[in-house]
Structure formats: C-alpha cells, structure tokens
Design goal:
115 residues; 31% helix
C-alpha cells in the first residue's frame, strides 16, 4: 500500500465505520501498490487531507486487499476517487489530477465548516 501522511488506510473490516458511518464526507482513493498514477496522486491527497480536515476525510483502500468493496462499488480502474456522504457514494472520479482541479471537482461535496 502506498503510505501517505495524513491518509488513513481502510480495509474491508473498517470500511463501514471509517467511511459509511462518518459524520463528514469521505473521499476514498481506491489504490494499489503497482499503480503509478496512484503514487502521483498520493501527495495531492495528503495535502487536501491536511488542509480540508474540518470538511472532508480522505482515506485509501487497497483494491488488491479489499476486493469485496472494490467490486461492490464497481471500481474498474485505479486510481478511482469516490466520495461518500451519509453512507452513500455521491461522486466518482477516475485518474490522477492536479490539486486545484480536484478541489474544484469536490466543491459540491465539501461539507460546510461548522456543520
């Protein structure tokens, strides 16, 4: 698993508590050790996790170690970024992208501060 400061690794055992039951929206990076674009995206996600911690949680899920969740949500490529709010997927993006573009794409799912 690509370890990134600021990101929590979720597993099949912790997915429900860490993602589906989270009070904040959760951005899940479906990733794999062998995925070059995932490594490219990891530092961007680490920055977003630190800067937006009061509005969104950012976690990683290794597709090779959590095939059940990967199949359940129809993930066919890595990196896939999926945003969950109130236990439901509300946004899905495939591929690496610059931080500015990713933040723009997440504008509608970021929780307002103080909620």
């Amino acid at each position: 698993m690509i370890r990134t400061a600021g990101l929590t690794e979720v597993t099949e055992e912790t997915f429900e508590a860490d993602v589906l039951e989270s009070a904040l929206p959760v951005l899940v990076q479906f990733t794999a050790d062998w995925c070059g674009p995932c490594r490219q995206l990891a530092p961007v996600l680490g920055e977003i996790a630190r800067e937006e911690a009061d509005r969104i949680r950012v976690v990683q899920l290794d597709v090779d170690r959590a095939p059940g969740i990967t199949v359940r949500y129809g993930v066919l490529a890595t990196p896939t970024l999926m945003v969950f709010r109130a236990g439901e997927p509300v946004n899905s993006l495939v591929g690496a992208r610059p931080k500015r573009k990713l933040l723009r794409e997440l504008t509608d799912v970021l929780a307002p501060v103080g909620r």
